[in-house]
Every structure is written in structure tokens, then in C-alpha cells.
Amino acid sequence: MIRHLVLFKLDEGVHRDDPRVAAGEAAFRALGEQIEELRHWELGWNISERPIAYDFAINSAVEDEAALKRYLEHPAHQAGVALWREFATWVVADYPF
């Protein structure tokens, strides 16, 4: 199995109530039902007020590197990524477990 972690930081001046953010969150929430490669899918907003904290996180798992590639290339995933590019940056970690 491969764990796929993504941490998002909203751009300066962008807040959770921004309609673009709501659309991006909705697009990513739907992926768990849309992409068969996903074995685990959870996401949520950070509750920490620490200055180093990111704003939004995705914790997911796929079977192997081939499944990760299919997930990353899936049109629904690509559409969600395009939305998030408008208002956030992110970091990713993929590791076997």
C-alpha cells in the first residue's frame, strides 16, 4: 500500500468561506466515491492555530504505485487540482506502508 498525504496552505487573503475554496473542497470530498483506486480517503480542515500549520489535509491510500499514477491522472482528480491551484499551495508525501 502507498500512503498519499497532501497538506494545503490557502494563499494570503483567502479564507475558508471563499466560494472557490468551497468548490475545491467539494470536488475533493467527492473523489472518494469517484476513483476506484482509493482504498482510504479522508480529508479535513486543520484545527491548530500554530503558525506553521497548514490549512487543509488529505490522507489517502492506494494499492501500489500504478494505482497512485492512475489516481493522479484521473480526470476528477485533475479537475479538483485545477480548482485548488487558484487559491492554495501544497506539499505532498507518498510512502509505502
From TrEMBL:
Entries under SMART domains matching the protein: Dabb
Top-level taxon in the UniProt lineage: Bacteria
Transmembrane segment boundaries: none
Coiled coil residues, start to end: none
Domain Stress-response A/B barrel: 2-95
Classification via PANTHER family: BLL2683 PROTEIN, STRESS-RESPONSE A_B BARREL DOMAIN-CONTAINING PROTEIN
Protein name: Dabb family protein
Lineage: Bacteria, Bacillati, Actinomycetota, Actinomycetes, Kitasatosporales
